[in-house]
Prior knowledge:
Blueprint: H1 17-24, H2 27-48
Amino acid sequence: MAKNRKAVRNTAKLSTLDDFLTKEGKREEFEAIATKEVLAWQIEQAMKIDPSS
């Protein structure tokens, strides 16, 4: 029976998501969207807090 072998990856050619987005000219747009989503989530969480506690 053949054994499954794990493929070896060459990490030398890998880049970060930030590098990719910068190269594509999209990093600032994605950061702005992410910031807005985090702020919206934080506001939503703050509104859920029971003022009587």
